[in-house]
Design goal:
heterodimer; A: about 325 residues; ABC transporter involved in vitamin B12 uptake, BtuC; globular; B: about 500 residues; alpha/beta; Rossmann fold; 2 domains; six-stranded mixed sheet; 24 strands
Chain lengths: ~325, ~500
């Protein structure tokens, strides 16, 4: 094999792997630079456990982004779901599972509401969800009067902190949700129609797809999974914190976009989001292990997010040129 | 006496990974002449133009412009030399004024500020010089495509372009607008400027060009003086073989009525349109651009709301309020804008083909990839789509093949009534014939076909019956035995002759 052929082969593999190349390189880099600490089972489990909440919300955001919209309200939706479920249990004595089901329904309903605002009132989703974010933030503060709610049930807390054998329960939940998401995108009409609407809503409409319904549905899924993320976060913190989820929307979105997703994403979207969330998790984890100053960590994270997208843009461009 | 050449190209080569786009192309343009550049899609016309305008770099070959050898390595350099290109996708900023569009990036400056008065005055003088009526202070949004092109031409002249390249300028113009454009081209010529005119329409070559150069598969096949050649010869040069027929023969077996539309109105552009189409029939819709043909079809399909009107399928009234209703009633609409409205460009061919009828590839409620693959492969071979595989993203297919994919997605959904809006726009001669043959085949299967077309020859060549629209109304019906371009034109401009 000569050099050119070899390059071609490498090219083929990296194209197929996409964002996973970055993930693998980062994994290798951290394994080497941190000595053995990064590769210790306890550290790896901790790493995945830390990204669970973001990743769960990010899966919802993937539905929204692939449908050509954006949701800035998912963090506050999560805060509302977490605090409200805590309130139902602690103040009103509801059972764990009823409380959770109720807040999941609330999340879905708020998502549908956002979808209606976007499709019926024709407010761009960036603005609609920005408004919704403040509305939800206000509701959370009104309900909680700004103070955390403690004294949650044990089985509720297990959602965030429990283990089945060596595997944390939140990791299992997120894995299942990602698989379901990937399955919907590849094998269900709903998933296909989301991708069609996201890429070209006009063409989708003229192909007989009910674009309005799809848009409302993606916001509903976004709301549902944000609420689920809120429950998981509250469980992990063992307390309903009104402000704990303040930048969750953006973290989740970072996972979606670092994974290389956009409105023209195809059926790999969910795994891209997983890769994106893992990359961000690994960067945070690695910098902690390397004892990087917390403020510098933020700077580094920002730079890395931009570089990841820039690399992806370069890759897509050169791919387009080659064809 | 031999006229001087403004541009000479010798041995131009350009390759892309896996393709030789241009192979040793020789080519020249004389001063003050209109040269038509013809060739099928993928023949290398666009690549050649992109090299001329500095967007691509040539691999080898030499280029002489205005007597001196030049290297054009950027669009800016091309403009400086006096070589201007007006792209198919017009480069105008819709929210800015006409004058700003012309002087963008080089606005006249006084005391460090933009000298608006001078900019407007200069722009105004420019349009006067070109005999184009234009309010230079108005924003571009809302101007017709033709008027936007005029801006491009004015901009070219403002650079004192000695050679203006127009890439398919007439593809979205009405006849009237095309006349105006041709007059401007003649004016440019009389100012001793040269024009390279790229077009798919052979008629236009004979009307406006002095010479025509033909490219095929990246090679120059030759150039002819227009007055010394024929359409037949040109087509043969373009496709590399004698084209015995421009339109396939039609042997129509017209059956019972399938679709009937009564008194369709939208309150604006369509006023009480009624018509019917039978099984096995190809119904042509002729008329000027803006006569309301597309609007009518979009309403029949449910893409736009109608104010009143009934739609009947096989005699029964059907409820059509969205494209979804049409899909259920097996009515298909192939839009005139296949890239913007017909395809998911970044998605695979197989994904596009099944997108309308996903239910057909379901097995136990889930999409089945094997069924999808089989469906895609079936239509790729049936419609002779040229593609490396069904995994190819449709953005990389040629115009003709993209159009076939759009048709395929409707065939896969078992459509019975197929509405095609300008089905061959921007498609080369060979692919056009294939689309016509496909239309014939579908009609022969008993489907009802409606074709909206602004191409007179095409509509006469493929229809069994033609309806002509004028200002939102059906101005006349022309039966096969009465077919004549004159009669249709008269109806189209509102003439009452019978």
């Amino acid at each position: 094999m000569n050099m050119k052929e070899f390059k071609g082969q490498v090219r083929k593999v990296t194209d197929a792997l996409g964002i996973w190349v970055v993930l693998i390189l980062l994994f290798l880099a951290l394994s080497i630079s941190t000595g053995k600490t990064f590769l210790q089972a306890s550290n790896l489990i901790n790493l995945v456990r830390q990204i669970c909440v973001t990743c769960l919300v990010a899966v919802g955001a993937t539905f929204v982004v692939c449908g050509g919209e954006i949701d800035l309200s998912s963090g506050e939706m999560a805060a509302l779901a977490g605090c409200f479920s805590a309130m139902l249990m602690v103040r009103y004595g509801w059972s764990t599972w009823t409380s959770i089901l109720v807040v999941l329904a609330v999340g879905t309903l708020f998502g549908i509401l956002t979808g209606l605002v976007v499709t019926i009132l024709n407010v761009p989703s960036f603005i609609a969800t920005l408004g919704m974010m403040y509305v939800l933030e206000g509701i959370v503060l009104l309900l909680t009067r700004g103070t955390p709610i403690n004294g949650l049930h044990e089985d509720y807390i297990a959602i965030g902190r429990g283990y089945v054998g060596p595997i944390p329960i939140p990791v299992i939940i997120v894995a299942v949700i990602i698989l379901i998401g990937a399955f919907v995108f590849k094998f269900m009409k709903f998933g296909r129609n989301i991708q069609a609407v996201g890429e070209n809503a006009v063409a989708a409409k003229l192909s007989g797809i009910n674009v309005r319904m799809i848009k409302i549905a993606i916001f509903a899924v976004g709301g549902l999974l944000s609420a689920a993320g809120g429950v998981m976060l509250t469980a992990r913190l063992s307390s309903g914190q009104p402000t704990a989820a303040s930048d969750l929307s953006l973290q989740a979105m970072a996972g979606v976009f670092v994974g290389g997703n956009s409105a023209t994403s195809s059926e790999h979207a969910m795994f891209n989001t997983l890769a994106g969330s893992l990359i961000i998790g690994m960067i945070n984890n690695g910098m902690n292990l390397l004892e990087v100053n917390a403020y510098w960590q933020k700077v580094a994270l920002g730079v890395i997010i931009i570089s990841a997208i820039a690399m992806d843009a370069y890759r897509t461009q050169s791919l387009a040129k080659a064809s | 006496m031999e006229q001087e050449n403004i541009l000479e190209l010798k041995g131009i080569c350009k390759g892309f990974p896996g393709v030789k786009a241009l192979d040793n192309v020789d080519f020249f343009v004389r001063k003050g002449e209109v040269l038509a550049l013809a060739g099928e899609n993928g023949a290398g016309k666009s690549t050649l133009m992109k090299i001329l305008s500095g967007i691509y770099k040539k691999d080898s070959g030499s280029m002489t412009f205005n007597g001196a050898e030049v290297v054009v390595d950027s669009p800016k350099e091309a403009e400086r030399l006096g070589l201007s290109i007006i792209h198919q996708e017009l480069n105008v900023i819709l929210g800015k004024s006409v004058a700003e569009n012309i002087y963008i990036g080089r606005q006249p400056v006084k005391y460090g500020l933009i000298d608006w008065n001078r900019m407007y005055a200069d722009a105004d003088a420019l349009f006067r010089h070109l005999n184009i009526p234009m309010d230079v202070k108005r924003v571009v949004r809302g101007l017709s495509i033709a008027q936007q092109q005029m801006i491009g031409i004015a901009k070219a002249v403002s650079f004192d372009a000695k050679l203006v390249i127009m890439d398919e300028p007439t593809s979205s113009l009405t006849d009237q607008e095309t006349r105006v454009l041709f007059q401007i081209i003649r004016d440019l010529k009389s100012q001793n400027r040269s024009v390279i005119f790229i077009t798919h329409r052979l008629d236009e070559i004979f009307e406006i060009a002095d010479r025509v150069a033909v490219l095929r598969d990246g090679c120059s096949v030759g150039a002819k003086v227009v007055s010394e050649t024929t359409k037949k010869e040109l087509i043969a040069m373009m496709i590399g073989r004698e084209m015995t027929k421009q339109f396939p023969p039609r042997d129509a077996k017209i059956g019972s009525e399938l679709l009937r539309v009564e008194n369709l109105s939208d309150g604006k552009k369509v006023k009480g349109v009624s018509f019917h189409v039978n099984r096995g029939e190809v119904l042509g819709f002729a008329g000027l651009v803006g006569a309301g043909r597309t609007e009518t079809m979009r309403m029949v399909f449910g893409a736009d709301h109608r104010r009143c009107g009934q739609i009947y399928l096989s005699g029964k009234e059907i409820r059509i309020h969205s494209p979804h209703d049409s899909v259920i009633n097996k009515i298909a609409f192939v839009t005139e804008d296949r890239k913007g409205e017909g395809l998911l460009l970044s998605k695979k061919l197989r994904t596009n083909i099944v997108m309308v009828a996903l239910d057909k590839i379901k097995k136990r409620g889930l999409l089945n990839m094997a069924m999808e693959r089989d469906a895609a492969q079936k239509y790729v071979s049936e419609l002779k789509v040229v593609t490396p595989s069904i995994q190819q993203k449709v953005m990389y297919l040629s115009g003709g093949n993209q159009q076939k994919v759009v048709v395929a997605k409707w065939l896969f959904s078992d459509s019975e009534v197929i509405i095609l809006d300008e089905p061959t726009r921007g498609i080369d001669v060979g692919a056009k014939l294939e689309i016509y043959e496909l239309i014939n085949r579908l009609a022969a299967q008993g489907k009802a076909i409606i074709v909206v077309s602004s191409d007179m020859e095409e509509i006469l060549g493929i229809s069994d019956r033609i309806l002509v629209m004028h200002e939102g109304r059906i101005a006349g019906e022309v039966k096969k035995e009465q077919f004549s371009a004159k009669l249709i034109s008269e109806y189209a401009i509102g003439g009452t002759a019978l």
